[in-house]
């Protein structure tokens, strides 16, 4: 493949490197130019265009990605159609993701033009979640390179979603003087919720003195009628011969491992009894927050074996979080700087439902809507405001004249909302902890409303998704933490931030800001009802 500028007379059959407008016609990036296209470009004054010229043995980006994806062996994974050189693969069921890392590494070593990225080994996934993506970097790639990758894929299963099974679980909670009944009841509720998310269910509970013999008796009884037994000790594991591991052995079972290099979760015990798995849960498992217990439980419910060696190998990545309420000695938490937030104001749309006029240029109290929205963004606590332009970009930019905003052009605005999100997120400053996505056509959102979202985001230490709401219903704007920025790059078409919020599983904080969260002006009636005056 050859890439670069060519005379317009020689461009027929080549692939456009950039979106291009010729009079009333707009050609998308990666469009293959026909003779008619070349004539239109010449008539519009083009003397050359930047293109990719494919060699006879090249495969186009979509064809190459599809061929590679179709050669892969996998389970419970759906392959989506190719677009812009990318094939995304999604989970067909909830479960635990497993991947052959050596195969992935071998594919990525063939040539930088061909890439595959996946979730981490043993990541829990929901049905419909993306688990892998094949991406061809240039517009085309040599067939020989694709063949080399498909040969690697023929080596066996490359990845899988191991579906959760509807396992039955029995629970033992030991007691000591001073143990509150409310703590035991809460543990039961938290455990039921933890099992429900992966298809397991709690069938029985026994409460026992924190002694070896009664715990052994209860474990043996529950193992007969359940697929798994979980034991919550009233006292933390203090020795490898302590009550829970000793009770497993007294009942005739075997302790596979006591202790794990995951924090929180160090004091987990794993054993077997009558062919059933027994987990001595660490104290942190009484909380719904992720800990080492989740790692072991999810894998077992997904039908995966967990060995002593598996647990020993969990140390890298095993430092999950710091809990300030734990007793010392602990490293003190560093003081957290105030999280910076950039605003990405989307103003690239075509206002297609208006039947002609650009709604962002409609006057509200004598001021263009896009300018009024930008001023409110600038009046908030946000560090910077980025305005994404596209349709009628010069008119929109003129309406913003004199404002201290950063402009991001989206030449692919006709492709849908995702292209504008990508253009805006790409301009967010490296020191920003999050980006608030503000729609340009929401006249009821004030600077104070934006500040309410930013305050909630800072209280979450910059980790949660924060969403405007009205009477309990989700609305806009939405504030995304930096951890979601990479996922934005995979969005396509009219997919927006809502997809990320639903798919990525982060904590979501809804902030009530009133009816402004739900008022947009997509139609003439809505705009005029909100007090706007359309301009031709």
UniProtKB/TrEMBL annotation:
Q: Which UniProt keywords apply?
A: Magnesium
Q: Which InterPro entries match?
A: Bifunc_Mopterin-bd, MoaB/Mog-like_dom_sf, MoaB/Mog_dom, MobA-like_NTP_Trfase, Nucleotide-diphossugar_trans
Instruction: State whether keyword ATP-binding applies.
Output: no
Highest rank taxon of the organism: Bacteria
Describe the location of the MoaB/Mog domain by residue ranges. 170-302
Q: Which SMART domains match?
A: MoCF_biosynth (SM00852)
For this protein, the record's Pfam families field holds: NTP_transf_3
Q: Which CDD domains match?
A: GT_2_like_f, MoeA_like
Q: What is this protein called?
A: Molybdopterin-binding/glycosyltransferase family 2 protein
What is the originating organism of this protein? Answer: Mesorhizobium dulcispinae
């Amino acid at each position: 493949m050859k890439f670069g500028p060519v005379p317009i007379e020689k461009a027929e059959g080549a692939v456009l490197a950039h979106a291009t407008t010729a009079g009333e016609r707009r050609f998308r990036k990666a469009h293959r130019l026909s003779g008619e296209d070349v004539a239109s470009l010449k008539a519009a004054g083009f003397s050359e265009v930047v293109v990719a010229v494919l060699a006879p043995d090249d495969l186009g980006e979509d064809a190459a990605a599809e061929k590679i994806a179709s050669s892969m062996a996998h389970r419970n994974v759906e392959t989506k159609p190719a677009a812009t050189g990318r094939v995304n693969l999604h989970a067909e069921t909830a479960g635990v993701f497993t991947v052959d890392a050596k195969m992935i590494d071998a594919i990525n070593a063939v040539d930088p033009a061909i890439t595959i990225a996946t979730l981490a080994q043993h990541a829990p996934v929901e049905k419909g979640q993306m688990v892998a993506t094949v991406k061809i970097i240039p517009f085309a790639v040599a067939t020989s390179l694709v063949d080399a990758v498909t040969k690697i894929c023929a080596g066996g299963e490359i990845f899988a979603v191991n579906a959760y099974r509807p396992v039955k679980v029995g629970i033992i909670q030991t007691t000591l003087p001073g143990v509150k009944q409310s703590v035991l009841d809460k543990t039961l509720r938290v455990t039921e919720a933890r099992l429900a998310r992966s298809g397991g269910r709690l069938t029985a509970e026994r409460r026992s003195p924190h002694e070896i013999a009664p715990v052994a008796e209860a474990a043996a009884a529950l193992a007969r009628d359940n697929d798994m037994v979980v034991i919550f000790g009233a006292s933390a594991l203090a020795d490898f011969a302590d009550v829970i591991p000793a009770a497993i052995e007294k009942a005739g079972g075997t302790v596979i491992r006591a202790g794990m290099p995951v924090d929180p979760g160090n004091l987990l015990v794993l054993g077997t009894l009558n062919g059933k798995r027994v987990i001595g849960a660490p104290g942190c498992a009484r909380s719904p927050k992720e800990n080492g217990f989740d790692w072991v439980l999810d894998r077992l419910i997904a039908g995966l074996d967990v060995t002593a060696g598996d647990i020993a190998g969990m140390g890298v990545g095993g430092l999950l979080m710091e809990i300030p309420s734990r007793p010392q000695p602990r490293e003190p938490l560093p003081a957290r700087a105030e999280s910076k937030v950039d605003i990405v104001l989307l103003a690239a749309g075509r206002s297609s439902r208006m039947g002609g006029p650009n709604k962002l240029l409609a006057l509200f109290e004598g001021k263009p809507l896009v300018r009024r929205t930008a001023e409110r963004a600038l009046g908030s606590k946000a560090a910077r405001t980025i305005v994404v332009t596209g349709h009628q970009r010069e008119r929109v930019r003129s309406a913003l004249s004199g404002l201290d905003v950063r402009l991001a052009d989206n030449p692919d605005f006709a492709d849908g909302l995702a292209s504008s999100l990508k253009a805006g997120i790409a301009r967010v400053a490296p020191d920003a902890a999050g980006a608030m996505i503000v729609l340009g056509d929401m006249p009821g959102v004030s600077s104070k409303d934006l500040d309410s979202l930013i305050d909630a985001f800072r209280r979450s230490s910059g980790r949660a998704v924060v969403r405007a709401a009205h009477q309990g219903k989700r609305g806009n704007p939405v504030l995304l933490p930096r951890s979601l920025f990479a996922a934005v790059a995979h969005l396509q078409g009219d997919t927006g931030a809502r997809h990320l919020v639903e798919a990525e599983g982060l904590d979501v904080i809804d902030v009530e800001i009133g009816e402004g969260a739900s008022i947009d002006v997509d139609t003439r009636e809505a705009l005029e009802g909100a007090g706007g005056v359309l301009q031709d």
